[in-house]
């Protein structure tokens, strides 16, 4: 709870910095507040806050996911100085809204009640509707905002209808009470229907096909820094909330939902990876890549064991740092070339070898190539799922093989052109280079020694 309060107050201060025409300091205010929140997340929870445990319990698992999202948000904020240089008049609002959205994510890590779940999702989502349309002069950004808002409203309707049916069956919003009801009344029709509606709503939030239709347009149309925030922090929050409700609240009716999720995983992996091959725009390709990773992450629902939550956290962290690694190059190229087609990246390795190498290693990690964090994360999830869904693992391996093809197209554009299309005077900032080196160390370090993740985030 202390972490949540610190981030909320930091967002308010950043917002007021813009009011007093000090918006250029809002990024530094945000980073300082996030670092303070990260420090507090390692401390024991104050006894004063335990009175709210019936609605909001900041246990060890919630702390682990909170640390991950704060860490990723800090990395994203470091990229904001260059990414938001054309939003100087209102950049304080953008940083504040991202932190407000992060507050919603932290609520989703800690909810003990379906009302808290709903509030967390709305606090997470509403700032994103504004952030997606932050580039007011870009029609794609305007379209992304409207499309995300309309589709999000439909998903919220499904979620509320599902919660209403669950409450009508169990007479409670408390997740422990609902869990007991599900175990004792596994064939209750109203309960099952409520569960299915909630699956549809949560599948939308994490972009599982066929509920992914909003994500390619929204990810491509949003400002790139907002896109990477949605692909990482928002996905982490949504997936843990989804995982918690299915494996805790609805564990008594797992026989009813496991096959539904299996079908969604198969559709997601085939559709997203096939569509990724058809793209000629790097940002849209990464959008479909993000959808495909939703399929891989969903393997955490199968073959559940004591390490399932840890495997989920490790995969989400490995995927997130790799996504930030690719977007370092994408944001830099987009600012210079005003586009993100594959052609815009030609010769990047000659102009900015560090950014190109970071992007390449990050994509190889996403594909699951050995000696990267992505390989270890996929290996852990695939090994777990083998115990309950060997066919899905086969589909996931095939999907990973397909993904290598579209990642290689961008790598070839960056490295295999004799002449650079970038001016020699165009150089990335020292901040971008430091973040790039840091991400390279993380990806390779966790690929060689994955236990370092638990040493830092599972304390």
From TrEMBL:
Coiled-coil portions: none
Enzyme Commission code(s) on record: 7.1.1.-
Principal subcellular localization: membrane
Secretion signal, residue range per the UniProt entry: none
Domain NADH:quinone oxidoreductase/Mrp antiporter transmembrane: 112-403
Biological process terms in GO annotation: ATP synthesis coupled electron transport
Entry protein name: NADH-quinone oxidoreductase subunit N
Record lineage: Bacteria, Pseudomonadati, Bacteroidota, Flavobacteriia, Flavobacteriales
Name of the gene: nuoN
